[in-house]
Design goal:
Blueprint (H helix, E strand, L loop, with lengths): L2 H47 L8 H18 L5 H26 L8 H14 L11 H12 L3 H7 L3 H5 L2 H22 L1
Helix pairs in contact: 1-2, 1-3, 1-4, 1-5, 1-6, 3-4
Length: 194
């Protein structure tokens, strides 16, 4: 493998590792923060429903029940909360080691022997495959995209992968959901006009 190919392989592995780290952190954040946020909203709505009659509507009550169901679903991940954080930290450490390896290979002269760097990449890839947190919570992918592309320093990966906004930085499932929602709103609007 030549220098250019090795740099590309390191960047691809860096992307997978970095995104995996952010996905674990996203699951941890959702499990940690969403139930208390939903509980606070439910409590406040219940409190204000005592003094403001419109909050006693069936739709509001059904929404509060839905919040409770969401909290119960999220609670299934609570026992692994620490493991998600630890896995995110482990993968972030590997991400930084890959970044340093990338910079070391960049600093080598064209045509230099890359066997040591290739062996180092193979060792890091072997460490990555020891990941134990494959079950992630719903919407962690969307949140991980935000955390990876907008909060993480990934310029070194972008040098090789050339990320684009719609293709890479916005999850396809989010784009699809957005498109279906817009089409549904347009269809509803057209139906009301006729």
């Amino acid at each position: 493998m030549n220098r250019t190919g090795l740099l590309r392989s390191i960047a691809e592995t860096g992307y997978n590792v970095g995104f995996g780290a952010k996905k674990n952190f996203a699951t941890h954040d959702i499990v940690q923060k969403v139930p208390s946020g939903l509980g606070l909203v439910s409590l406040l709505v219940g409190l204000y429903a005592l003094v403001w009659e419109p909050l006693n509507a069936k739709l509001i009550a059904a929404t509060m029940v839905a919040f409770g169901i969401i909290t119960l679903i999220i609670a299934q991940y609570d026992h692994n909360k620490v493991a998600y954080s630890e896995e995110g930290e482990r993968l972030t450490t590997l991400f930084y080691r890959l970044r340093d390896l990338y910079r070391d290979v960049q600093a080598t002269a064209e045509g230099a022997d890359l066997a040591v760097y290739r062996a180092h990449l193979d060792a890091l890839q072997a460490e990555v495959s020891g990941s134990s947190q494959s079950k992630q919570i719903l919407f962690s992918d969307w949140y991980a995209h935000y955390k990876f592309f907008w909060q993480h320093q990934i310029e070194w990966i972008d040098e090789q992968k050339k990320f684009t906004f719609w293709r890479d930085k916005v999850p396809f499932s989010f784009s699809f959901t957005l498109a279906v929602s817009v089409l549904a709103l347009v269809a509803i609007g057209i139906a009301r006009m006729t």
